[in-house]
Amino acid sequence: MSVVEAEDDEDDPGVAWVPYYPRKVFRPFHRRRQRWSIIVAHRRAGKTVAAVNDAIKAAVRNKDGDGRYAYIAPLYTQAKDIAWDYLKHYAHPLLAKPPNESELRVDLFNGSRVRLYGADNPDRLRGGYWHGVILDEYADMRPSVWGDVIRPALADKQGWATFIGTPRGRIGLYDIWKGLGQWKDVELFRLMLKASETGLLKPEELADAMRTMSEDEYAQEFECSWEAALKGAYYGKLMARAEDERRVCGVPYDPAAMVWTAWDLGKADATSIWWAQVVGREVHLIDWYEATGAELDHYAKIVREKPYVYAGHIVPHDAQAKILGMAQTRLEQLEKLGLRPMTIAPMHRIEDGINAARVMIPRCWFDRNKCERGIEALKMYRSEYDEKLDTLKPIPRHDWSSHTADAFRYLAMTLDKSDQSKTVFGRDLKYPKMGEV
């Protein structure tokens, strides 16, 4: 991994007329020469302010007359809540006209634009080009947004990207920081800011936070720990144990065992599919696929083209529901497309499905390469958090990880009831109570 470590610089790298004077810890970031950069910083360090001003500086210095820069948060509402006021405030002296409130966009005097987006609507990100992009809280975004949408939009202008956020376990930002996967041997500017080292927060405030937060929460939010468990994660510790036990590895297809597929069928959103084999007491997850907006024949073609012999295809209970304007149910359509036998996942409460998945994960082996994004989704799947009450809600959070986790849940519930699963699960399962595992 080729990286450039952060070093102090006393000079002010700001833009004249902009009311921004960078904190000392961010000055090396503003003076970087690398195309790709990552900032892992504790809460209230000022990473969003620094990144927004970095985009403004680049926009002002753009000489093309059509500079395009983007700030992207996991959700569009987050982008507005977190960065819109900052962008308007700091860009105010440079504006060519009033900020565009409907598009969350500022137009500068030299023709450049800086605009806010949400990664929850990837289609809105398509079709344009960018000179530079900020991805805030990247760990909370669907991983495919980078490779499928954002990176291609940087190509013709040779644009840069800055990833910022706090850790969410060993996913998302972790691979970039460590130079893993596609980031191997990529030249990076990297900057990590721990609260115990920056001096930006008062010692008494940190001491109080340490007393009133769990050890994992404090380590993650203030000390940038990659090891802390993701708050509210249903399968986080179980997936970490799978990695520790080396059950996330190469898992080849065994021609002696038949394959199950398990689907979460999206309509306007994603459809996710797992491929699994029951081998003795083990469940082998050998493949995974997800796409958005495609018709059922697309997914059926993907399944048929795999070199697998199928035991059955598991779909959710609502696959047999009648949809207005359609002559056939989705179950009937899949059967017509040649997928047989079809199996309806049993009706169940979502908490029972989550706990069935928990029972199954300790016996699962995951193919590291083919199931990479599916594995990340299982790690990220977590309960909704109530900010006002400062507590976890008894329902899962709906985000990019939900579809993959739902498909996995249908698989667990169906194998639980199938004859093939008796050696894996045993009889008379007693599920644990809901909570973090």
Q: How are the strands ordered across the major sheet? A: 1-8-2-7-6-3-5-4
Tell me the CATH topology of the largest domain: Rossmann fold
The rounded distance between the terminal residues' Cα atoms is 33 Å
Q: Characterize the overall form.
A: globular
Structure description:
By secondary structure, this protein is an alpha/beta fold. The chain has 2 domains: 3-223, Rossmann fold (3-Layer(aba) Sandwich); 236-425, Nucleotidyltransferase, domain 5, CATH 3.30.420.280. The protein is built from 16 helices and 17 strands. Strands 1-8-2-7-6-3-5-4 form an 8-stranded mixed sheet. A 7-stranded mixed sheet has the order 9-15-12-11-10-13-14. A two-stranded antiparallel sheet has the order 16-17. Strand 16 and strand 17 (391-396) form a beta hairpin.
Characteristic key phrases:
single chain; alpha/beta; Nucleotidyltransferase, domain 5; 2 domains; seven-stranded mixed beta sheet; disordered N terminus
Summarize, please.
The protein is α/β, with parallel strands linked by helices and 437 residues long.
What is this structure's SSE topology?
Elements: E1 3-5, H1 27-30, E2 36-41, H2 47-61, E3 68-73, H3 76-91, E4 105-107, E5 113-118, H4 122-125, E6 132-136, H5 144-153, E7 160-165, H6 173-178, E8 188-193, H7 195-198, H8 203-212, H9 215-223, H10 236-244, E9 248-249, E10 259-264, E11 270-279, E12 282-292, H11 296-305, E13 310-315, H12 330-336, E14 342-344, H13 350-360, E15 364-367, H14 372-380, E16 383-386, E17 391-396, H15 402-417, H16 422-425
Parallel strand pairs: 1-8, 2-7, 2-8, 3-5, 3-6, 6-7, 9-15, 10-13, 12-15, 13-14
Antiparallel strand pairs: 4-5, 10-11, 11-12, 16-17
Helix pairs in contact: 2-3, 10-14, 13-15
